[in-house]
Amino acid sequence: MVNKCTISALGVFAKSQELELAINDLKAAGFPMDKVSVIAKDVEQGERAHR
User: Fold this and answer.
1) CB 11, CB 25: distance < 8 Å
2) What are phi and psi of 6, to 5 degrees?
3) 20 near 26, Cβ under 8 Å?
4) φ, ψ for residue 28 (rounded to 5)?
5) Which whole-number Å values give the CA distances from 42 to 12, 13, 23, in the listed order?
6) Contacts (Cβ under 8 Å, ≥6 apart) of 22
7) Which segments of the chain does DSSP mark as H helices, in order?
């Protein structure tokens, strides 16, 4: 039998600046960015999150 432990986290942000700060904190802590997903609504045409 194989047991696989998965840890998940969720953040909700009202402003894109708050999201960027949280992502920067994750990066600084060494969290792998390939494990981060962002879902957004009301994003301006051409606006994009920076990696």
Assistant:
1) no
2) -120, 130
3) no
4) -60, -30
5) 14, 13, 19
6) 11, 13
7) 16-28
Side chain identity, residue 47: E
Instruction: State residue 45's pLDDT score.
Output: 66
For residue 7, the one-letter residue type is: I
The answer to pTM > 0.85 is no
Q: Which two tokens stand for residue 29?
A: 């802590």
- Model confidence band, residue 16 (pLDDT cutoffs 50, 70, 90): confident
Mean pLDDT of all residues belonging to the chain: 84
Ramachandran class of 18: left when φ > 0, alpha when ψ lies in -120 to 50, beta otherwise: alpha
Query: How many CB atoms are closer than 10 A to CB 16?
Result: 14
Question: DSSP character for 16?
Answer: H
